[in-house]
Design brief:
Layout lengths: L3 H11 L6 E5 L12 E2 L9 E2 L3 E4 L6 E8 L13 E5 L11 E4 L3 E4 L2 E4 L9 E2 L10 E3 L7 H9 L4 E5 L4 E6 L3 E2 L10 E2 L2 H11 L5 E6 L3 H14 L2 E5 L10 H7 L3 E5 L10 E5 L2 E6 L3 H19 L9 E6 L3 E2 L6 E8 L2 E4 L9 H5 L2 E5 L5 E2 L4 E6 L3
Parallel strand pairs: 5-6, 13-16, 13-17, 14-15, 17-20, 21-24
Antiparallel strand pairs: 1-12, 2-11, 3-10, 4-6, 4-7, 5-9, 8-9, 18-19, 19-20, 21-27, 22-26, 23-24, 23-25, 25-27
């Protein structure tokens, strides 16, 4: 059995960026990571652009100007202004090359074809210069940038339609157990509805991982070995839930051994989630998580999350951690470090009732985990505690 720190270190060392690439349409690339720099094919803005509704001026010493028409957004005709002339202009419209300032309309009095401004304004005032955001040929976004909605909008504004990104890992979720049946069917005595697969698939989707397949195995050594061999051969990451303990009908460990899987670690000194397995076979990363749902999800956020970030070549590997003031008292039983389901808000955190590893009701209310290290046995109200913020 190893420590939490040793387990995290082993995952960071073992997992490598996939470095597989794929070309995606920009609008389908949310959450992906750029695998190369993107250079802008145009200047942005592509012309000198008015930042205001007002008047573009060819500035002279006087405050009076003579109007020579108007320019609105989308107009592509060109006007030439002599010194002392102006054109009515609207936000986003092209500024004539002969204009050297834009005065906002609130500072102008209009009389027929003449305007009077309140005071002289500086050169290039209220004009967005050519290439202000990015110039043609410059790097618009660097390799390693995560494509957010804003990034996608930015690239589209440059006329870019396709991007080269790091391919997402293919992920198999395997659930084990004779007691499990699919929700929606009648529930016979002795059976429970299987929830781990849809829970993990949802957690992955929340992190923008969608190349996910679901598999079920009954408690049988031959079936377990055959199914695990198949999903390991076809996927970059395999997440197994249940069957990893040492009971008579826990066959995952035996099957992984039969398949000559490299064991990086098995069992972590923690609660919940002690019987956690991490290994690899060839280039496939394998996690076997405890079957209890709350333990499954805790291990996913604390360990599988790190592997996913490393495989996607992201910089921030772990979920954000902060210190917050506890609103609760808590007494730990045993000497294992513990992850406690909690609600964080405004620099305070409330530890919830119902910390049993089989209980999802409490986890459903949580947005954080409080980490209670081995050396701490009690938490009192107003104690500062370490908080792991879960993805929203």
């Amino acid at each position: 059995m190893i420590s939490i720190h040793q387990a995290i270190s082993a995952i960071k060392t073992t997992c490598k960026p996939l470095m597989k690439e794929a070309v995606l349409k920009v609008e389908k690339s949310s959450g992906f990571i750029l695998s190369q720099d993107i250079h802008s094919p145009i200047n942005m803005p592509p012309f000198r652009q008015s930042a205001m509704d007002g008047y573009a001026l060819n500035v002279h010493e006087k405050l009076e100007y003579y109007l020579q028409g108007e320019m609105k957004a989308g107009d592509n005709h060109k006007l030439y202004l002599k010194e002392g002339e102006a054109v009515r202009i609207f936000t986003g419209a092209p500024v004539p090359d002969s204009a050297n300032a834009v005065v906002m309309q609130e500072k102008v009095k209009v009389s027929g074809n003449k305007i009077v401004i309140e005071s002289n304004i500086p050169s290039e005032h209220n004009i967005r210069p050519l290439g202000e955001q990015v110039k043609k040929g410059e790097i618009a976004l660097k390799q390693g940038t995560k494509l957010t909605p804003a990034a996608i909008g930015y690239l589209t504004s440059l006329g870019i339609t396709d991007v080269l990104v790091y391919k997402q890992p293919s992920i198999a979720i395997v659930t084990t157990g004779n007691e499990l049946i699919k929700a929606g069917k009648p529930l016979p005595f002795g059976k429970i509805y299987e929830s781990n697969s849809v829970m993990l698939q949802s957690a992955l989707g929340n992190l923008d991982f969608y190349d996910v397949t679901l598999h079920t195995i009954d408690d049988n050594f031959e079936n377990t070995t055959s199914k695990l061999q198949s999903v390991i051969n076809l996927n970059d990451l395999v997440i197994i839930t249940g069957g990893i303990s040492v009971g008579d009908y826990d066959f995952v460990g035996k099957s992984l051994e039969e398949l000559k899987t490299e064991v990086i670690f098995y069992k972590v000194k923690q609660k919940p989630g002690k019987p956690l397995f991490f290994g690899k076979k060839d280039d496939t990363i394998i996690f076997a998580l405890p079957g209890n749902p709350a333990a499954t999800l805790s291990c996913f956020y604390c360990y599988v999350y790190i592997a996913l970030q490393k495989m996607m070549n992201r910089n921030a590997l772990e979920l954000p951690k902060i210190f917050a003031k506890s609103q609760s008292n808590f007494k730990k039983s045993g000497d294992r470090p513990q992850f406690l389901k909690a609600i964080y808000k405004d620099n305070e955190v409330q530890i919830l009732e119902g910390q049993n590893s089989s209980m999802l009701q409490t986890f459903a209310l949580s947005n954080a985990l409080v980490f209670l290290p081995e050396t701490v046995s009690n938490i009192s109200v107003n104690d500062m505690v370490e908080v792991i913020l879960l993805p929203s």
